[in-house]
């Protein structure tokens, strides 16, 4: 058992944190959000330069072959700085699907460009009726000569409005809630029949609702088994959940630090309000919630690659429950303890709160994952 | 970074587990599995088995019987013991007064007391709380007046756990009434057989009598039983309480209780099927399991960092362990109440050898008392509200 980072990991952490400290303060973030693009080309270029965009990819694809701990380090730093760039969408989701399901030719065609910062990806999967069920897919792909024709609607596609390439899930067989019969298709975002409606999200990032109307792709666009993609989707979503847990820890840490700072400086009744026990205990409860979430984010990081799917699912769901609950609690307490200024768009803490709130809903909220963890038989095998 | 145990740690866990399986007497295991408190004899028997193996006091310095294990191995040992389930070694000796003596005591005190603690030849109890000094421990009034080569002690201690069995009590006493609160307190070791000591049991809401009041009436204590320096007792007490919080999460105890909850919920019927198949119950249980898993990792993080801290300086994060650990001990006893349902109702302090049949199965009869009893865990060892004060000050700097 060892909780220490290696020298290389420490270096990665320091360089990401330094880059964000230099270029990603709250004012800089405001400008990026206001640009309506969902990302800053300069920041994206620095991510590429630092090697972050190819972090988990193989060296032959311009990557570093790094593992979940490295992703955790980057995501935690992003959470602390409230980074809005579509890193999760491009590297973890899109890149993850290509990495796990793609053929060597597909990987060589896509991943080096992603690592170089020249191509952004998005995963067009969720549908309005599916809520959090990954297997609920109605969008359909029909064989069409050598290739496929895709029809359907996708929603909440993170980074979907500015992505160059979409990975689209579509049903090739079975009924809309069958586990079998789902395929993954690489689709050019500008392909004929793809209509994207982009919009800002509550937390300052961007997403898109996407309609696919008779979108024609070649046989080579299929990632892996055209009817058996669900396991790889689940695996990549599990990796995304582990990454989000780390991001949430960074954001929660930032919320607590900001709150403690405010308690020390804000004066009422002739004294810093941090002298009041009612407020001290709220802050202490926030720390307990943060430490519990940090432990489960570590657990998710460790278990994201575990071989046994039942064990892995229980662990990831357990982590999402803990992180979701801690994130809601810490976010709400942070606003309460900041008082009126916490309610203003101008002040940073409200934006931390909004990101934390959205992380809980992404890929299943605490209630959803509690049901999954219970179904998997819990986490304590005593 | 790797949260898994190393091969060496796994081998150690297997060795410890195998030893517990083979060495723990079946009668003791059965009583603990059914939710009973270990008896005095259970605790003594088990401590002597451990001592014969050289495992009585793993966390002590090697010269006094410690094993030299890493903090991780010590943690594994403790957790395996809780899950066996074996009686917890008497904390007042091995985890409280023992470390105070080997850290601050005289050579004579070390030689006299430490081997007897390891073998539980002396049963120790803790004389800290008083009727007027609970969370505000430093306001204690029990007076020790130096007269030649003795201290004369007058006053009263309370909530003294298992004092009915005790040979010795370690006490915080006021030696300088003129000094400010914390400054005039000393740490005194007192033989319970000394004339002038009276022990009166207090019955708690579970029906048991594990705590007592202890009265001191002109009790003459040899001055050589003072630990360290006069009026420095508060420093030793803080050291002791910091140590106490590390072990207080009792993750292994809660894990063992989860095992019991699952086992019993597979037997108890609700709506014509085993309770464990009820979705709502399973989700309630899973929620507790998730928090417990998180606490286990938090505990391991504190343990792993321990090797890097200055000795004798507990991590302020141990207050997090105390808060969450106590909440989860309570949550698991509460889940057991949910399992037994309406049959929590009978109050059946069945005495051995009684003529009448007990009303409930043995395992069922302990559930409600255990729930009532465990309300104490968020009160003792510095109440959870005191822990939050500590976090606010020592961790957050408020």
Description:
- The complex is a heterodimer of chains A (382) and B (398).
- Chain A has 382 residues and is α+β, with helices and mostly antiparallel strands.
- Chain A folds into three domains: 7-119, Acyl-CoA dehydrogenase/oxidase, N-terminal domain (Butyryl-Coa Dehydrogenase, subunit A, domain 1, Orthogonal Bundle); 122-227, Butyryl-CoA Dehydrogenase, subunit A, domain 2, CATH 2.40.110.10; 231-375, Butyryl-CoA Dehydrogenase, subunit A, domain 3.
- Helices cover 51% and strands 15% of the residues of chain A.
- Chain A has eleven helices and nine strands.
- Chain A has helices spanning 7-23, 26-34, 41-50, 68-81, 87-101, 104-115, 230-265, 277-303, 309-338, 349-361, 366-375, and strands spanning 121-124, 140-144, 147-158, 165-171, 182-188, 194-200, 206-217, 267-268, 271-272.
- In chain A, the strands form three sheets. A four-stranded antiparallel β-sheet of chain A has the order 2-3-7-6, with no helix packed on it.
- In chain A, a hairpin with a 2-residue loop joins strand 8 and strand 9.
- In chain A, helix 7 (230-265) packs antiparallel against helix 10.
- The longest helix of chain A has 36 residues, at 230-265.
- Chain A is globular, with a radius of gyration of 21 Å.
- Chain A starts with 6 loop residues before the first helix and ends in a 7-residue tail after the last helix.
- The model of chain A has no long low-confidence stretch (mean pLDDT 97).
- In chain B, helix 7 packs across helix 10 (318-340).
- By secondary structure, chain B is an alpha+beta fold.
- In chain B, a hairpin with a 2-residue loop joins strand 9 (269-270) and strand 10.
- Chain B has three domains: 7-89, no CATH class; 124-231, Butyryl-CoA Dehydrogenase, subunit A, domain 2 (Beta Barrel); 248-395, Butyryl-CoA Dehydrogenase, subunit A, domain 3 (Up-down Bundle).
- The radius of gyration of chain B is 22 Å and the shape is globular.
- In chain B, the strands form three sheets. Chain B has a four-stranded mixed β-sheet with strand order 1-4-5-8. A four-stranded antiparallel β-sheet of chain B has the order 2-3-7-6, with no helix packed on it.
- Chain B contains 13 helices and ten strands.
- Classes of the chains: A alpha+beta (382), B alpha+beta (398).
- At the A-B interface, helix 7, helix 8, helix 9 and helix 11 of A face helix 8, helix 9, helix 10 and helix 13 of B.
